[in-house]
Task: structure prediction
Amino acid sequence: MTTTEQIKALRSEPWREELRRKMKNKERSEISRVHMPELNPEYRSHNYEEVNLGLNAEQAMTEAQRCLDCPVPTCITGCPVEINIPTFIKNIERGNFFEAAKTLKATSALPAVCGRVCPQEKQCESQCIHLKMGKEAVAIGHLERFAADYERESGKISVPEIATSNGMKIAVVGSGPAGLSFAGDMAKSGYEVTVFEALHEIGGVLKYGIPEFRLPNEIVDVEIDILKKMGVKFISNCIVGKTISYEDLHEQNFKGIFIASGAGLPNFMNIPGENLAGVLSSNEYLTRVNLMSAEKEESDTPVFHGKKVAVIGGGNTAMDSVRTARRLGAEKAMIVYRRSEEEMPARVEEVKHAKEEGIIFLTLHNPTEYIGDEKGRVTQMKLQKMELGEPDASGRRKPVAIEGAIEIVDVDMVIVSIGVSPNPLIPSTFRGLDISRWGTIIVNQDTMQSALPDVYAGGDIVRGGATVILAMGDGRKAAAAMNKALSSL
Result:
């Protein structure tokens, strides 16, 4: 259903008029936003329990009453996967939680995930009419999480309807959010979908990149299990481009390929001392802890438990890394960021949680060198103090070094979290793809189709680094375009 069709459908349900009669918009707008309960910071900073506790039914129904059921719901267009937001919220308001979950799953393969990690404040919630009235937006993300969690915890998990099989085989490279979203939509349309994952765990960045205190693995596994019940097949420990080639996929009669291999190649600053022991990327650190139990001494690849840990960067991955270090015993865990806090790309909620857990923020500081001891282990970092100049191409004010303002800080571990680049394996082995100077696959932005007619791509392999929900939006767009192309054959 297109966004226009969704908006027209909003007016057709008779129960909506009943809800309007029960409460006028003036009354709705006077209800304060419900704030989600959280674990105590001192307690949670020493374990991996989920920080946010979710809303109960009463809180969710109260928050749902705040939705004004706008004639033109811009929250839908603010959502990259175009969830029918007013309908799922109004179902919560009238206590029909299962119908709310069903509405979510009509367009989103990962509602319980998105309700936890999507930056709703920059997307659907940023379009909420309440903001224009000087009030807080409806807590769309909290309500999405509630509906998905309610269904899961009830044990009555519904599986979306799928069309009769058309016998066409589709391959997906990567089991992260873009791949899973694409797989779900293609399965609904009757295709035989196989997802190839390079790692031993299915879920991509949802498993290796996001700690369980923010997104429990159990949540991801349940969402993946629904896809399995829809007929999606998963093959792990299979590196497309190495274990299996583009030509092999053709020989196995795959009619379309969606590349969602992400961007797992870490960026470094190329400053002196980056090769010292104790300096590593956030990708390596989080993957080892999240997937390989590296925090345990008995692990085959144990990670060092730093006591004075610096994380370089200001995004969500940096926050995940520094909060993980805190949980692994860091007495002094620091964020080092060259701009001010206002320019940080991390979610406001993540910054808030980090501060509550005792994380130190060294903003307007930039590392220029790491210093080691005679054994080659990092012991200090040299920081250049910065000030903000004129805005750069990103619209953020450019950090400028303050001449002579240098600070030396003791560290025993440094985690670099300044972005990622695509792994060059797929671009180099799928001959005929157009590749940008950043190593990303160039696609038609309307269809996500690459220069190879049967190959589509989305997520970080195209964007170079983005949010879960934007990757999912790419997956849905690619699925719609591929389905249209294959249906015309």
Remarks:
- The chain has three domains: 3-40+50-154, 169-264+422-487, 268-416.
- The CA atoms of residues 454 and 485 lie 9 Å apart.
